[in-house]
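Why does this matter for the project? Reviewers at the last site visit asked to see concrete outputs rather than summary tables. In response, this paragraph embeds two records directly. Each consists of the residue sequence and, immediately after it, the corresponding structure tokens. Nothing has been edited or filtered.
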Amino acid sequence: MGEKMQWVLNFDKENKFKYILYNLMVVFGDVLMIFPGVLIGKIVDNGIVGGDKTIILPLSIMVIGIVLVSVFFSYIGVILLNRWGYRLAKKLRIVMYKKLNELDSNFYNENPLGELTTIFSDTHRIRENMCFTVKTVLAAVLRFFGALIYCFTINPKLTLIISIPLPILFYFSNRYLKTSKENYQDKREYLSKFNNFIQENIDSNRLVKNYGTEKEEINKFKKKNRILKNKNLKIRYKFINYNITTVALNELICALLVFFGFLFVMMKEITVGEWLIFDSLIWCLRTPFENASVLMDDWQNFGVALKKIKWILSRKPTILDGNLELNGEHIEIEFKNVCLKYDKDYSLKDFNMHILPGKTYALIGSIGSGKSSIARLLLRLEDATEGEILINGKDIKEYKISSLRRYFGYVTQTPFLFSDTIKNNISFSNDKLNDEEIIKYIKLAKADYILNFKDGIDEIIGEGGVDLSGGEKQRLSLARTLAKNPSLLILDDITSALDFETELEVTENINSLNYDCTKIIIASKILSVKNADEILVLEKGKVIECGTHESLIKNNGVYKEIYDIQKRGIKL
């Protein structure tokens, strides 16, 4: 318990003292509630039975005063504690979000989305436990031992008798704590997988409908849901069993007090007022065990949640940032014997390429030939396993990653669009664009279909552009990248979903951009690459041909074969 709390307090070190102070205020208010029962016992013994009427009013006023002070400290303390807790949760979410943005694609490849989204709800458990469980446990422990000691000073014999069930309660509480920990960990891990399954199913909803496999998916969900239900029931059964045991043993404490308390009163070993003190303090002995199951469940959830948060925050990106700022006005790139290897297979092997400012370069080849790997290396989504990439004569790893991505524009094969207006999607990296400029880039990307929408550029598109066709998404993604005015434009097979005429128009517009821009065009169609200054033909990660369109046609190699296949029925 101490280690977990220490980590949280170190995380919010500047507010550590405030947290301790707020807890002490609440605990002080809770512990004060021991004394009204003691004073009432004194009133009965000395004022009512003893006949000293002069003490009744002062002691009654003291009882009211203690209650008011207790309520005041508890109320103020709880408010301040909750303010601290919500600030802590906010800070945790911000730090985790920043961490998730720092981590590279390797991390996201290994961890499903459902697992990562679940972690943000874990901040709620951290807040709840730090603001509720800690002060509740601390107050309960102080009241328990305070009441036990005070009862012992009144009558040790009766105190020992009513304490008979306490060791049994301690035993069951300790056993419940140990056995429930593993169950909560197991449930938390399965819940992450369950959430990931739901996320994937929602994302693939159209595919499921296309294949008519709704029934199979529902059956899968039922099976997973049944497993989750059984895990919850397993935890709940243990909770119920422990609760029944503690309730029975707590009632035994009351029964022992009633029977032996009245017996001791009749034997004049204690007074009626002292019995009332015992009766008023017995709740201090009972409540820790009555609330223990809930508190321990909360604490187990807290431990599991904190473990996951600590794990996320301890992750380090495998792609390390550099210190240099890139000069976007002049970008010269050189690949020198670059290799990119996954396990035993090479995506690129001994790749060499020299990219000069303002020129257009094209990469063509079959699927899996390594074309997209070059884009990922330039954006440092991955790092080369061998060789080096030089930008303006310096290793790419020496530059700040944000600096590279600021000047590089990358349009992927499978574009992602936000569930937002078209205007906000296009101005994503350049929020200073006005409507006229946005429309200019829309036309440049041949995304004129947008202008026919009811709300035009203010039209809200569905999540991921679900309402748009593949070609429409590609053109909208292209407009967004062009609006960035990148110094290096990387187009990764962006015309794959376009018809011939639209592809021709898009290609012509890209070739005639009105600002200085180096272009790397990755494509599978000759039409998209034929006007490039240099074309590289890749096969199994290696460059097998290199030259202009005309020289490669004359070479009569692989490029010529692709050309012959694609030119049938199409004028290239």
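We now turn to the second protein, recorded in exactly the same manner.
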Amino acid sequence: MITASNTEPTTAQAHPADSAAAASFATLLGKLDYLTPADVESVRQAYRFADEAHLGQLRKNGDPYVTHPIAVAVQCTEWKLDAQALMAALMHDAMEDCGVTKQELTERFGAPVADLVDGLTKLEKLEFDTREQNQAESFRKMLLAMAKDVRVILIKLADRTHNMRTMSDMPRSKWGRISNETLEIYAPIAHRLGLNFTYRELQDLSFRFLHPWRYEVLSKALNKSRHRRRDLMTRVQLEVENEFSRHGMPVRAMGREKTLFSVYRKMDNKHLSFSQVTDIYGFRIIVPEMTDCYTGLGILHQLYKPVPGKFRDYVAIPKVNGYQSLHTTLIGPFGTNIEFQLRTHAMDVVAESGVAAHWLYKASEPNSDTSQRLGTQWLQSLLDIQQETHDASEFWDHIKIDLFPDAVYVFTPKSKIMALPRGATVMDFAYAIHSGVGNRAVAARINGEQRPLRTELNNGDVVEIVTDDKAEPNPAWLSFVKTGRARSKIRHHLKTVAQEKSNELGERMLNQALRSEGIATLPSDEGTYKATWEKLLRFTGNKNRIELMADIGMGKRIASMVGKKLAVLLSETGLKPDPLLISTERYASGHDGSASQGLVTLDGSEGLSVQYAKCCKPIPGDRIVGYLGRGEGLVVHAEECPTSKRLQMRDSERFLEVEWADETVRPFETTALVTMNNGKGVLARVAAAITTAEADITHVDMGDEPAQTATDIRFTLAVRDRVHLAHVLRSLKRTPSVLKAQRYKPSKA
């Protein structure tokens, strides 16, 4: 998959260590006691197939290559994965390295096993522009496969874990890249799915090969500390066990230690020395029932004093990966801070094995599939994003956002708990509820108070979304949403709306262009003129009429050129141009016989297919021209705009005539330059004058220069038309302290 692993085979004639493979497989067989005899035989057949497929291939250390797939399968037995998963683990490199086809695997081992192996296979046979694209595409395939079957990622994580364990056999030049990839991609996935043991091991192994010297120094420091603190830990464990025994509660107390990577990261992030990291050691207390977690907390708090602000309840509100425990930090003997985690046996299984707990205890523990359910919710969201995002790199960007599970927990008005990534906003919450809620959101109340949609959420917030059936997503939301789901839903909607608006604009433009050629209406692409449309589409290179209209609306095709070609094709069927219509259209458009693309009328309802140029900000009443930007639709400029004049000199064929509708449906932005005497309350009076004239201020630019006696301020205003703007300027000029008020226009080219 993404990996450039040390499993890359090398070929040899024969190798005396073939017995190593048999010994490895014997180890695997010894761990299959949870399978039926029929399943064990299926695993044996998969081993024989893999052994034959990899015959003569060696790993970098000289062992037969098949020892790697066996090691991956052994890791999968730790999670008690079923026979199909173990078979796929044994054959996971057969398609990639040995030329075995999916069809062959399907015929011999069945479709489920073949699908698992296919999900684990790299896309090396396809050509990509960059390594990043290859990585993104491979990762997308793996994620989608795991969304359908989580066993894919479990096998993949076992594969990566074994590769990292044997990294020392690889050339040192590859250590950095593979370790970074593991740290940035695979470890977060393991954490996201609750595979904490694997998560910690991958982090430590990555740290070891990324920073060998730091790893060695820190490892020695931790060993010394371990010897010094042994008596302390023994004493604490004894005191804790005696206290629980005194209260008649049977528990299991286990000492635990921060991983080297966790210690290193804390030292690095907080600029601490090793001696300043005080919470390296802790205890895990396994209690019989969930309610015993809280009883045990009381017992511990009576035994040692708690550190204020260091209590976390992940039992009532689990982490997004299914993790449940009570965390408390206590002041132990000699003033040492010690963290305690209280959890049940079922919680402990989920905490260490995450989604794998589904296989480990699904028969004996009816409530142990909490993590499986939570993991599946996230995996299912990948399919939702995939349906709306067909670009691999964009998909990868979405997923990276969701891989790091530091979460905030907020509530709906009906007290349902929602887990979101740290930094998530109101809009992330809205889209987490339903895409329809997100698309129609107009306002929000947090804890009963009106708040902006970009507000970041905090733990415990109660969030209510106010919707409006006429509302639509705003492109500006993309600048502050944090979750991949929200981002993909917004982009998908914007693309869909842009396409629809472009289709409408393209249809109008082609219809007008055809009228200029003497044909009154655009014919249907069915029935009589179906063959004509097929010829036109071959000429333009479009797949269908909708795509052609969108291309015209987006400026990728010139309407007049398409109209001329369509008129010629229609004349071949016997539909002749109307000379009177040609004369009327060209007289109305002011052309003296030149080709016209037709007149487009604008009322402000065009949406994303029409943009009003930021350089000149035209408003109704201005003389305007339209420029068909390549791929950006119709851009409307004021006729005297310097930018527009430069474009006309360079690209005149992409201009078309536009006019304002008699009535527009919304206000338009323009800029007013106001020169005023600097003084107390002046800005407030100017703003009041603008409001009195019924205009909205959307932006204020005061510049970077220190305030002078007379200061220039630019106000971006939303007005109905030129008449309304004139009224606003008159109101400003009558305001005390205002020296001059005028419309701001760009300087001449």
